[in-house]
Description:
single chain; alpha+beta; eight-stranded antiparallel beta sheet; 7 helices
Amino acid sequence: MKIARALPMILCVALAACGGAPVSNSVDAANAMSNELLDPAKEMARRWGTVFSDAELRVRAAKEMGYTIGTLTAGAPGTFSAKSDEQVIQLPRSPIKTRSTLEASGTKADLIDRYVFTFTATGDDGRDSKSASDADKTPLRVLSGFLGRFDVQPTDPIKAGIKSLQPVDVTLPGARIVFDPGPVADPKHPRNRSSMITIIRPGAKNPTTPQDQTVPAPAAPVQAAKDKATRK
């Protein structure tokens, strides 16, 4: 594990930084750091915390995934939000175009309560080609790419549900992730749909709801129980 391999060097730096402090104090400080680094739950909680609190990284991560989004600005009393322009995602040789937006919102200007990614796919010709089925993975690619910038990833149950366009509602140690695949208007063109991914911060008080969006409550989620977060 990368954390374990880096531990000796980190401890050496910690000890050196103590300078002329008593050896016992230096060792205690190093041991405390060691315990925290060796606790995967604490480390993952720290990383997930940056997803909701690191504004600079949020803007950069969104931009790298094609979304231009600024800092949160005040809206209705007690609410703050920022929304990207719409981007169009189309894979090579795929007939399907996906229009997508990202909105971040919260009750504080410096803390996100929730992210909402929307995906509206059109152009399904009814043929089950590889290029068409690859378009089904667009929401997962976006989610994994965005979270990867914070050094966290969705777990396997989340990935499986999104890939198969099934409802997902999973609570991780650092976030709740909900996927609503949306209704199918025409069974002959099942890929023409509007889906949504919502990432909710633990402990968020009355997370703000972006206009015309709600947190979906799937009838048959892939996994509603708590699941361990895994590192990319």
